[in-house]
Amino acid sequence: MLTYRERYEDLLEATSYDHLTGTLHRRQYDQEAPEILARSLKDGRTLSLLVIDIDHFKQVNDRHGHQVGDKVLTTIARMLKENLRSDDHLYRVGGEEFVLLCERLPAEGAVSMAERIRKSIERFSTIYLPEKVTVSIGISSAPVDGENIEDLFQRADVRLYEAKKQGRNRVAGP
User: Fold this and answer.
1) If DSSP codes are grouped into helix, strand and coil, which group holds residue 73?
2) Helix, strand, coil share (%) of the chain residues, nearest 5
3) What residues does 92 pair with on adjacent strands?
4) CB within 8 A of 74, min separation 6: which ones?
5) How far is CA 69 from CA 20, 56, 57, 98, in A?
6) Are the beta carbons of 137 and 160 closer than 8 angstroms?
7) Residues with a known catalytic role
8) Interior angle at CA 159, CA 34 and CA 165, nearest 5
9) pLDDT digit of tens for each residue in the chain (174 aa)?
10) CB 50 within 8 A of CB 100
11) pTM score, whole prediction
């Protein structure tokens, strides 16, 4: 017999939102992102894709436990949601990885937004979390970096790993 909590989590799982972070699920990304990109390209508008990864997240879990790890995830998700514009879509696509799709945002604006996000997470974490937490962010923009969602994600992911190689807590974009 399921508890009320388990039923509640099952219900949330069946919806579009991640039960821990309140962001949209990976499956929502898989369904919506191609449509959002196609609409942007059809209308001649730019679209930027940011892949945001929490640096050394496994170490946070190892040092402080999964409960603190969950707090870090929810805190960062909340900070990301607080920085959304009306044309932005935030998805949790992996354990500690988020994708932010930004309609009507050219590459320069995406880099600026990513830097603001990166700096605010670093500052906030030194005050309110058990240890300093940082993020690395890779950015791609359509149509320059690709005209399908797979190419955009791949380009942003390559840039994310460039940011990590350069020492983490960085933004790498076009």
Assistant:
1) helix
2) 55, 20, 30
3) 98
4) 20, 21, 22
5) 11, 11, 7, 15
6) yes
7) 96
8) 150
9) 667 767 666 665 567 888 899 999 999 999 999 999 999 999 999 999 999 999 999 999 899 999 999 999 999 999 999 989 999 999 999 999 999 999 999 999 999 999 999 999 999 998 888 889 999 999 999 999 999 999 999 999 999 999 999 999 999 999
10) yes
11) 0.89
Amino acid 19 reads H
Distances (CA, A) of 27 to 16, 24, 92, 164: 8, 8, 9, 26
**Number of residues written out for the chain:** 174
- Lookup result for tokens 């993020």: 135
> For 83-150, what is the HEC assignment?
CCCCCEEEEECCCCEEEEEEECCCHHHHHHHHHHHHHHHHHHHHHHCCCCCCEEEEEEEECCCCCCHH
Paired tokens of 165: 């190689």
Cis status, amide bond into 174, omega within 30 of 0: no
